[in-house]
Amino acid sequence: MQFKTSFSINKTASEGCKETITLSYPKTNSWKEGTDCCTWDGVTCNNITGQVIGLDLSCSCLYGSISSNTSLFHLPHLQKLNFAHNDFNDSIMPSEFARFTSLMYLNLTDSMLSGIIPPQINHLSKLVLLDLSWNRFDSLDDNTTEGLVRKLTELRSLSLDGIDMSLINPQVFMNLPSSFQSLSLIMCNLQGKFPENIFHLPNLKSLNLASNNELNLSLPEFNRSSRIELLDLRGTSLSGSFPDSIGNLQSLKYLYLSEASFSGVLPSSIGDLVSLKQLRLADLSLFGGLPNSIGNLVSLEWLLLVGCNLTGTIPRSLGNLSQLVQLDLSMNHFTGEIPFTLTNLTRLKYLGIDRNQLEGPIPDEVNAFPNLKTLVLSSNFLNGTIPLWLYTISSIKSIHLEDNQLTGHIQQFHGKALEVIYLWNNRLQGPVPSSISQLVNLYWLDLSSNNLSGIVEFGLFSNLQKLQHLDVSYNHLSFNSTTSTADYVLPDLLHLYLASCNINEFPKLLRGSEKLIDLDLSNNRIHGEIPKWMWGVAKDSLRYLNLSGNFLTEVEQLPWRNIEIIDLSSNLIQGNLPVLPPKTSIFFIPNNSMSGEIPGLICNVSSIEILDLSHNNLGGIIPQCLGNLSKGISMLNLRMNKFHGTIPSTFTEGCQLKNLNLNGNQLEGPISRSILNCTGMEVLDLGNNKINDTFPHWLGSLPELQVLELKSNQLHGSIQGNLHNHSFSKLQIFDLSSNDFTGYLPTEYITNFMAMMNLRGNESLRYMGYEHNSDQASVFYTYSIHLDVKGLDRELQKIFTMLASIDLFNNQFQGEIPTVIGRLNSLIGLNLSRSNLSGSIPPSMGNLTSLEWLDLSWNKLVGKIPEQLVQLTSLSFLNLSENHLHGMIPQGKQFNTFENNSYEGNHGLCGVPLSKLCSYNQTQQVHKEDGSESSIGFGWEVVLVGYGFGLVFGMVVGYVVFKTGKPKWVVSLVEGQKQRRPKISRNGFRGRRRMN
Fold first, then answer.
1. Is 742 within 8 Å of 814 (Cβ atoms)?
2. How far is CA 551 from the centre of its chain?
3. H/E/C letters for each residue in 466-492?
4. What is each CA distance from 181 to 161, 220, 224, in whole angstroms?
5. How buried is 97 (Cβ within 10 angstroms: 0-12 exposed, 13-18 middle, 19+ buried)?
């Protein structure tokens, strides 16, 4: 009884029992004074002597400390002691445990013990099982661990999960006795080589080494005599590959491997593991396919092969696994169709084959998957209609078919257990099914980015009182507001996305919403101002608000206290800028009619990261305090306003700005040197102002600068300056057009433009931008820029990461085009027009094989057009007009597509497409220089390649300029290329919203 009274009862002390699905209750409540202790709960006595031989107080809600003088240690005959899942309040484990000389079973897992593990434990020579896992013990050393291994000769099971073993050599375990059966060392920070002989212990049944990232091991050759039942090596530095002898593990029931440097194929001998119940492989670098022998594992209940790099088709033999409950083949590279044989798996509750490359229809069988609860087939290329069985099975709770190519109508759902429906980014048609209103357990519905049509009544969702997420954006739906009422609310609604839904007012169902986090009503027909009743909606919970692309005319206030992201872009909003809430991190209000000055109060919003006020009528001086915000702000876009004065000189040390865009204002004076504090600057756009300065050579020390736009200012002098080893080495867009620069072209800088050389090493199509990450969302803001493209000034809403261009148009340079420019083989655009250049066109320009437009017009260039330019097979725009060039125009490939105006004003040129014919001598001279039999043949194949590269850039610009001679069959081949549809951007401006 003294032991009982030394503890209090606290239910939270046994929280760990929930993970083991064990009932926790205070067993000591049955201990009564004057009663036989052998009848007490948790106490076991010898039937003959009456001595206490067992004490099981696991999950007993005990809270308190174990002292060394507790009456517990007066039980000398104790053979079994289980204190698992209690809270001993960080008390030191007493050495008195060594008194239990008859003890065979000691389990102290998850008991909040601390300090050192007493070495006297080694005296418990009869111990068969020892479990000290998930406590707060000090790090184990070699001596203590070796004592456990060498002296506890009867030990069969040892569990030390969660105890730091970074100080010990794993080789200490090689001395485990041959009778040993189970070793568990989860998350022990083991380091070094694990002894291979452990795998060969003749009686070993369980080996769990999970989550030891620096533990090195490999799978050995296995003998058929092995008795291993569980092998868990997840999260270790497992290397090598599967041995063919893996099939010798005839007793193996559970095999878990993941996050390892493990490669090779999955051998067909895997099918010999006839006892296997669970096979879980994840994040492995396997190659090859899934062997047909996998269908031999008829005892298998769980098959998880996630992110294992598997290829080929899914074997039909999987249909033999009649005991299978969970099948997950997600994040591989499987191709072909889903085998129809999978419909044989009648016990299946979870089926996941998402993020593969599967095609064809989803198997449709009337009696398919009668027990299925979760279906995840998203992010494939599946087509056809949604199978009928999915609408009728009563067990289904979660459907994930998003990001495929499914067509047809969504039928009526009959499964009332449905909780989650993901169908976004397909090609589904027709109305939203009325049965949605009867799915009272539904909490997540996403039908966005389809071709759904018809009128939707807001009342359709009135019965869905558990609804948390609703997204029907980007369809062809129209919401009927005339019949909407405010007599219901959705009390648990967290995310509402109704972008492009033809809504003309704020939905009344928002009234009373107190938990709303995200609201997207972008690209609708909402007029006027935000109604005052909206000011009280989700006043404390709203984090994301997107009202872009509407017809709002006034924003009086933004009353949401904790809002982080606000997008009001592309409306008709007039007046002064609203006061921003204090936690705002992203604020978009471009393409409106805002006026007045930027209020100084905006500088009180220290959390701001992206601020876009572009394309308004704002004026005045840019507040100097914005520079003080630069320690937090990453994106500042004030382009196309009426600001005057100078660029702020207050960008402080530690400045985080990545994009500063002040283009299209009336700024004067020099460029502020405080910009040098913004060492992460990627885009600096100061074009179209009145800046009067020399070339800011010091900007070359910004190590991340990719875009420098200084066009249309009053800059002057030579571009030469102090050159550092890495000056402008990452620069991809260099625009100094329409200034008053003089001197020679900057050969030294051109030599340093390393990013314009071999830029095509990147694999994926990405855009320059800034990604804002928070607990709430991820928003990617793509950078924009004005650029002269093929003779036309265009605003690029997105800058392709492969784009590299130089524009020095309309300056007062002198001298020749430097030969070194031919090194910029990733250059896509080059404009040196009206730059007062002389000399000849360097043949090295034939190395600019990525070039899509070239403008050298209105200079003083002489000589012949180099034949090497014919190799520019991506070129779709050429302007060499108004120079002093002579000789025969090169023929073949792209040059066969250019018109007269590419060459006009060069009176010495002759040949196609000009009407002026070349003399016999001129023609023969060209043939001799070319060294070919003919240079007039039309290079159709190469022209197609060139047009193709033009299209790549056209994805950024939004158009491709083709000159006369673009054949219709080329157009159809290039423009008709089928591309997979991405999920449409959530916010109406240049960003995306991603739910975590």
1. yes
2. 33
3. CCCEEECCCCEEEEECCCCCCCCCCCC
4. 16, 18, 17
5. buried
Residues 6+ apart with CB under 8 A from 264: 240, 241, 242, 286, 287
How far apart are alpha carbons 163 and 132 in whole angstroms?
Answer: 8
Beta strands in 326-368 (DSSP E): 326-328, 333-335, 350-352, 359-360
- Whether 613 and 598 have beta carbons less than 8 Å apart is answered as yes
Pairing of β 877-879 and β 574-575? unpaired
- Segment holding 87, helix H or strand E: none
Torsion from C-alpha of 846, 849, 852, 853, nearest 10 degrees: -20
Q: pLDDT by residue (tens digit) across 344-377?
A: 999 999 999 999 999 999 999 988 999 999 999 9
- What is the number of alpha carbons within 13 Å of residue 720 lying toward its C-beta? 9
HEC per residue, 160-209: CCCCCCCCCCHHHHHHCCCCCCEEECCCCCCEEECCHHHHHCCCCCEEEC
How many Å apart are CA 108 and CA 91, to the nearest integer?
Answer: 13
Question: Which structure tokens are listed for 548?
Answer: 């872009």
Written as six digits, the tokens of 186 are 């989860």
Contact partners, residue 743, CB within 8 Å, separation at least 6: 717, 718, 719, 720, 813, 814
Lowest-pLDDT range of 61-75, 446-460, 511-525, 964-978: 964-978
Distance CA(923)–CA(906), nearest Å, equals: 18
Angle of CA points 486, 538, 476, to nearest 5°: 60
Alpha-carbon distances, residue 303 vs 229, 290, 350, 943 (angstroms): 16, 12, 10, 51
Write the pLDDT tens digit of every residue in 185-194: 999 999 999 9
* Cβ pair 977, 955 in contact under 8 A: no
Which residues are within 8 A (CB) of 437 and not within 5 positions of it... i.e. 6 or more apart?
Answer: 459, 460, 461, 462, 463, 464
Judge whether 960 and 951 are in contact, CB under 8 Å: yes
- Residue tagged 């492989």 (tokens): 281
User: Which pLDDT tens digit goes with each residue over 433-471?
Assistant: 999 999 999 999 999 999 999 999 999 999 999 999 999
The b/e string for 20-53 (b: 16+ C-beta within 10 A; e otherwise) is: eeeebebbbeebeeeeeeeebebbebeeeeeebb
Instruction: Look up residue 986 and give its amino acid.
Output: R
Could you count the other beta carbons within 10 Å of the beta carbon of residue 232? 20
CA-to-CA distance for 620 and 607, rounded, in angstroms?
24
Report whether 168 contacts 192 (CB < 8 A): no
β-strand 476-480 against 451-457: which pairing, if any? parallel
Alpha carbon 486 to chain centroid distance?
39
Amino acid present at 393: I
The dihedral over CA atoms of 510, 515, 518, 524, expressed in degrees to the nearest 10, equals 0
Contact 621, 599 (CB under 8 A): no
3-state secondary structure of 429: strand
- Residue 781: name the closest of 799, 762, 794 by CA: 799
- Closest of 643, 549, 633, 551 to residue 595, by C-alpha: 643
Q: Helices 968-975 and 940-957 meet at what angle, rounded to 10?
A: 50
Q: How far is CA 250 from CA 142, 209, 220, 272, 772, in A?
A: 35, 21, 15, 7, 51
SS3 (DSSP) at 106? strand
* Distance from C-alpha of 703 to C-alpha of 716, rounded to nearest angstrom: 24
Q: Can you give the pLDDT at residue 928?
A: 52
The pLDDT tens digits of the residues spanning 644-677 come to 999 999 998 889 999 999 999 999 999 999 999 9
Residue 770, pLDDT above cutoff 90: no
Asked whether the beta carbons of 327 and 318 are under 8 A apart, the reply is: yes
Minimal CA–CA distance to 99: which of 68, 135, 137?
68
